[in-house]
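ingest -> validate -> predict -> emit
validate: passed (alphabet ok, no gaps, 75 aa)
predict: started
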Amino acid sequence: MTRFDKASMNILKLHPDVAMHSIKVVLRSGPFSDTLYVDLPIKMDNLKARVVRYISIEENAKERKRVKEQIKPHH
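emit:
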């Protein structure tokens, strides 16, 4: 998102619809990008809030996996 923000600031009068479409095109396939096809936010602030939530979900999943691996009995 940070790279997209920097790049889009260099484009004068960038229409929000064009920006949203561009984001959908450049994202890697995955759960987050899939949600954009189902329910694309209308405003960039809403998209950024969703990005933050998904990053948090991914970080929590990684932490849970790490903890589970630490407590597994070793055979």
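The chain is about 75% helix and 0% strand.
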